[in-house]
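FORM 12-B: Structure-to-Sequence Request
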């Protein structure tokens, strides 16, 4: 373990620019009257964090791996990474310098509050979360989206991705879309589906040709622990499936 000097650790802070720490097992912020001070803490990459028995790789909002720290006999872990792991939204309220936990705004981007599961065979290879601007063709113009679940290499074999939300939300809004991959010019039909994975219950389904969009609102996800996104095409197809701007509330 290497020593690091932590500068001005605050209990109310900027989530996007600082690694937010919490006590393991406690999701709460405690007010402190004392002024910020410098401390010496220990970065602890050798500490393993498990959730429901599965080892977790914690990452910040930019995708960089982050680790617990140890200070005065207590272990602290990054709040945003834990929030994502547990399906709990983490937001920063700049006007009051407050960290907000949970569904405080009534709506959140799915990619910010879900955890991609890699512990189920075949569910992680083709699926990715996209949290940056996505520009896609839309007739004579370009359509712009802010996030997506993307599944690559769509053909006659079903491709799937699994994402944990822990029953934290009731409704999902999303736009389905399919685009040709690379130089492919396939014009066949593709089927995109969303399931309650644990109940094997179909929640939404649309059949599309490449370039087509289908907006689906008010998908009932009450009590859903894990969402499965699935896409399948024809024998000689090669495409990318998008579940665009998935929003939960």
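FORM 12-B RESPONSE
SEQUENCE OUT:
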């Amino acid at each position: 373990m290497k020593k690091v000097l932590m500068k001005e650790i605050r209990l109310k802070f900027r989530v996007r620019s600082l690694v937010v720490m919490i006590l393991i097992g406690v999701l709460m912020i405690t007010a402190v009257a004392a002024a910020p001070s410098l401390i010496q803490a220990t970065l602890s990459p050798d500490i393993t964090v498990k959730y429901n028995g599965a080892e977790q790789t914690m990452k910040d909002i930019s995708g960089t791996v982050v680790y617990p720290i140890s200070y005065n006999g207590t272990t602290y872990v990054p709040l945003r990474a834990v929030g994502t792991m547990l399906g709990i939204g983490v937001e920063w309220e700049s006007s009051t310098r407050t960290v907000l936990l949970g569904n405080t705004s009534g709506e959140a981007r799915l990619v910010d509050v879900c955890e991609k599961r890699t512990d189920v065979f075949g569910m992680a290879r083709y699926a990715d979360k996209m949290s940056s601007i996505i520009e896609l063709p839309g007739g004579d113009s370009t359509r712009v989206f802010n996030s997506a679940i993307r599944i690559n290499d769509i053909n006659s074999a079903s491709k799937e991705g699994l994402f944990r939300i822990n029953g934290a939300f009731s409704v999902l809004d999303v736009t389905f879309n399919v685009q040709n991959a690379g130089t492919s010019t396939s014009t066949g039909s593709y089927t995109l589906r969303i399931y309650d994975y644990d109940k094997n219950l179909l929640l939404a389904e649309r059949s599309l040709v490449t370039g087509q969009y289908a907006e689906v609102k008010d998908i009932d996800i009450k009590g859903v622990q894990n969402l499965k996104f699935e896409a399948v095409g024809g024998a000689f197809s090669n495409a990318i499936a998008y579940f665009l701007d998935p929003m939960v509330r």
